[in-house]
Design goal:
By secondary structure, the protein is mostly helical. The protein has two helices and no strands. Helix 1 packs antiparallel against helix 2.
């Protein structure tokens, strides 16, 4: 079973992807984001960074 951090990371990705497919704001693109898209993108990026950092630290601890 995946750990909680990994699950939160994937949930943030899914939320961001859902937003990208449904957002009707013309300012929300792959290169700029609406306010909600920016918030969701930031949450995803932070969780991804935390997950990857933990993976790196596990690898280096061996």
């Amino acid at each position: 079973m995946p750990d909680a951090l990994y699950q939160r990371y994937l949930a943030a990705l899914a939320a961001y992807q859902d937003h990208r497919t449904t957002c009707t704001d013309p300012a929300c693109t792959n290169f700029s984001r609406c306010l909600e898209g920016q918030r969701l993108g930031t949450v995803f990026e932070r969780r991804q960074d935390a997950y990857l950092e933990r993976q790196r630290s596990k690898r280096n601890a061996r």
